[in-house]
Please model this.
Amino acid sequence: MKTDNDRQTKNQGDTQMKILGLALSVIAAGLFTLSSCKKASAPDGTEPEVTTPEVNDTLRMKEAVAWIDARSNVFGSYGRFLDTGQIRATLDTMKQVGITGIVLDVKGSSGHTMYDSQYADNAFVKEGKHLPAGVDYVGFMIAEAKKRKMKVFCSMVTFVEGDRVRRQGKVYDDPVFKDQYQSIVCDIAGNRVPITSTDRNGFVNPAIPAVQDRAINIIKEIVSKYNPDGFLMDYARYADAYADFSDYSKNDFIKFLETKYNDNDAKNMKFPSDIVSSWKQNGDAIVPNATGKYFKRWLIYRSTVIRDFFSKARTAVKSVNSNVKFGTYVGAWYATYYQVGVNWASQDYDPFNDREIRFDWAYPDYEKTGYAEQLDLLMTGNYFTQLYIDDNPATTGMKYHWWSVEGSLKGAKYVTRNKMPLYGSLDMGNLSWPDEKSVTNTIKYLRNNSTAGVMLFDIIHVYAPQANRLKKPLWNAIREGLKD
Model:
């Protein structure tokens, strides 16, 4: 949810997942309550007694971290971060209103970096704007933040390597990435096509070793070069439910079935119809209409790929500096996040056997794909204008609800088992906030109820009235929200 076209803003950049949460507020209530999912049964036909006890959280760090997207803040029409004087002035204001740290975007969806990299082209010039000569943007930002005693988390877009609008990036410039590594997706007719032909940014296939190696090299380079307080992965996932259906994924999935399930008939599968037999349009997204016999094991395969990569990425960070915190950003809507191949829950949480919340897509062993235990911190995008569960008659009285701030934060704690400090996050500019007080109340709620504090997306929505729907600076909303 950052910029760079698919990242144009946190909500616009990933519309299929993020705006969906706002549109399906009522529908999701049904998705989140008991469903008709059939769970495992004991030999006598009764369901086993499986409970998922809640874990009390005691940590209250109350940090306030602001995301600084590179494209919008540096190269965007209203961005201030191209000028060192304006950077200093903006950081001063951030400090004055109570912001304690920043998330610094250092690799965007184009695959280009905001520093001179050995592994990627740089993003020093875009749309005719260029970084000041002789200034290391990332180094300068970190140094200035540290002068103000602010934490710095460097972030990178992990599995996107192409800007669809500008036709820039690895999937456009490198024939191997274009022909072999970019994600292959299914269109509504079930045809397998390159993702760049579908008006989406250039996602790559996370399962391919060379794709992972490139990401790991950049991760180690950033940590080694800049020694931030923490490192965050963004877009460390598949593009959506319609990805990745390449020949590589087919063969890798067959190996997975043969190894994990002793399925010697897997090589005879009808691909991809034995996974998804038909597709439909749901808003801007193409989603399964009817699924095949391998669908749920396909979900486990994809989330296993991501879990294993997180293990590699964590090891990479710690091998350079064990003190650097390792984390990620995810959307807070766990109920549908399986669609992008990610299980950000704890391995102690089993969605298949949860008696309180039923997930029709869950399958035995899905809990083993959880990666919460890999993290030192987690940021969840609680991007909703509905603050409390009871604010909507359709959700009144529910314990959890993925499409409200309160409900999604409670749900995040529930599935992660409080394995790491958690930052609840709000979108300052893309949502239709009714008034400034609503922004303040949401900041206050997230800061006081998240175990780590609050993340504010994105700082351009705060200082540039043109970049938020209230059309006014939002510094005072933050100041009031961060008061104890």
Q: What stands out?
A: The chain has one domain: 15-185+200-239+297-481. The two ends are 29 Å apart (CA to CA). Residues 15-185+200-239+297-481 form a domain with the TIM Barrel fold (CATH 3.20.20.80).
